[in-house]
Amino acid sequence: MVSIDQLSLPRQLDIVFRELDEELAGLDSGIVFVQIRNNVIGKFGIRHYPVPMKKGIESSINGLTDSQRSSFRLMALESLKLKRHWTHGEITYDFAVRNGMIVVDSTLESNYNLASLMIRYPRNTYTDVNVGPS
Predict the structure, then answer these.
(1) What is the mean pLDDT of residues 62-90?
(2) With contact defined as beta carbons under 8 Å apart, do 31 and 92 qualify?
(3) Rounded to whole angstroms, how far apart are CA atoms 46 and 26?
(4) Sign of torsion, CA 118 121 123 125?
(5) Residue 60 near residue 100, CB atoms below 8 Å
(6) Cα→Cα distances 35→16, 22, 42, 90, Å
(7) Alpha-carbon Rg for the chain in angstroms
(8) 3-state class (DSSP) for residue 102
(9) Most buried residue, 36, 65, 72, 88, by CB count within 10 Å?
């Protein structure tokens, strides 16, 4: 059996979108999120908010079509090319159907933990940093 950490991040994201496919078929707006740790997707899901409740925005009440879900998945996979040199974080895909077209905005967020970084550096690495008041 293949372990999840043996799969590339694009392949993991593809699996996420295939898992969320049925749920996306019933939604016309929301945020898909994936949380990444050591380049492995752990938690993922959808934050749904109904667009029709916002004034002046027309929305579909049928959810995403097959072609919209396919386009969404391809856009999400394409956005991974923007991820550079980080292994922990979250990617969100804010989506909505407007005038029959899916609109997607992605946000890539890197996360670092200073405590784990300090383990890697010798004790006196940053002695030249002025910490006190000048």
Answers:
(1) 95
(2) yes
(3) 12
(4) negative
(5) yes
(6) 11, 20, 6, 4
(7) 20
(8) strand
(9) 36
Question: What is the SS3 assignment for 18?
Answer: helix
Q: What are phi and psi of 23, to 5 degrees?
A: -65, -40
Q: What one-character DSSP code corresponds to residue 80?
A: G
Tokens 């933990």 locate to 113
For residue 52, pLDDT beyond 80: no
Q: Where are the alpha helices (DSSP H) in 41-112?
A: 66-79
CA distance 52 to 120: 50
Q: In what order do the strands lie in the sheet with 101-110?
A: 40-47, 29-37, 89-98, 101-110
Report helix, strand or coil for 29: strand
> Rounded distance, CA 79 to CA 104, Å?
10
* 56: its two tokens: 């002046």
d(CA 77, CA 85): 17
Q: Other C-beta atoms within 10 Å of 28: how many? A: 21
Rounded Cα distance, 30 and 50, in Å = 7
